[in-house]
Write a structure and sequence with these properties.
With about 300 residues, the protein is an alpha/beta fold. Helix content is about 25%, strand content about 25%. The strands form 4 sheets. The chain has a 6-stranded mixed beta sheet. Strands 3-2-1-14-15 form a 5-stranded mixed beta sheet, with no helix packed on it. Helix 4 runs parallel beside helix 6.
Length: about 300
């Protein structure tokens, strides 16, 4: 079994740019084309949060339209940029999705050799994540129901400190309590996270916890705690988690080949030159975003 992980998609409304400069919608489309082209093709795709940039209905409409191009099935959870209530309504027709009035987007997928558990760590209108008592109880009970099945948990906020201090400041509350639960359930072979926009791995709770690069911009590797948030147009990648009966879960980075030259060029341009170029080259760039779409 092969599981593709995409994360931090930051989809914006049609013909908009994220942060006035990043073509996140086009970059997601390129990532989807890359996944579809892989041989062998993944059996499933997990999208570990920050699906949209503002959590608006029009963004989820475009997200669903774009994800529909994926050949493998995709399973989504929210991140701190999402709105849980809007996401639940947008994906209400998906058989794995909890009902629209559910308190959290938590679920288990039992149709594969590796069990997939989607875990909602989002907190309304806050950037940090939370594993509250209710979510911890749900996780413990769900893991207890299938103690012998290899299990991958996917969530947005990593349950460990990464050393990227600006991102850790908006990290997960309750991670230590989650660690105690996971340590008791030896079938957990991976905890796959997003949020950091970087590939990071750590031995955690008797298993491996990891974060994956974004399908759009990455966060600069800054371990000093100075200068605050900075993003960089480093290569984008999809994480591939490959199940091997003898060795367990083996993970790879599969870099998205489309758009390298374009991204490198865009990152070096002035805002005025970038806007002119984008308007000329792609339909998504024809309408420049106004201030309400900037963060």
């Amino acid at each position: 079994m092969i599981i593709a992980q995409i994360t931090d998609l930051h989809v914006v409304a049609k013909n908009r740019l994220c942060y006035h400069r990043v073509p996140t919608n086009a970059q997601l489309a390129q990532s989807i084309a890359h996944i579809n082209s892989l041989d062998p093709r993944p059996d499933a795709v997990i999208a570990s949060g920050d699906l949209t940039d503002h959590g608006r209905p029009e963004e989820y409409d475009l997200l669903r339209e774009t994800l529909s191009d994926l050949i493998p099935p995709v399973f989504v959870i929210p991140g701190n940029h999402d709105r849980r209530d809007v996401l639940l309504k947008a994906f209400a027709s998906e058989d794995y999705m909890p009902p629209p009035d559910a308190p959290f987007v938590n679920y288990a997928i039992d149709r594969y050799p590796v069990r997939l558990i989607g875990l909602d760590t989002s907190v309304l209108e806050r950037h940090h994540g939370m594993m509250c008592e209710e979510r911890l109880r749900w996780l413990d009970a769900t893991l207890s129901a299938q103690p012998d099945c290899p299990t991958l948990i996917f969530m947005h906020h990593p349950p460990f400190r990464t050393g990227v201090q600006w991102m850790d400041a908006s990290g997960l509350h309750g991670g230590r309590m989650m660690e105690e639960i996971v340590r008791r359930h030896r079938q957990v072979v991976r905890v796959a996270c997003g949020h950091i926009h970087r590939p990071i791995h750590v031995a955690w709770a008797g298993t491996i916890a990891s974060t994956s690069p974004s399908t759009c911009h990455q966060v600069s590797l800054n371990l000093t705690g100075q200068n605050g948030f900075e993003f960089t147009m480093e290569p984008r990648a999809v994480q591939l988690h490959v199940w091997d009966d003898s060795y367990g879960l083996i993970s790879h980075l599969s870099y998205v080949p489309a758009g390298y030259e374009e991204v490198a060029m865009l990152s070096s341009l002035t805002d005025e030159a970038r806007a002119k170029l984008l308007a000329q080259n792609r339909r998504e760039y024809q309408e420049l975003c106004n201030s309400e779409y900037d963060r």
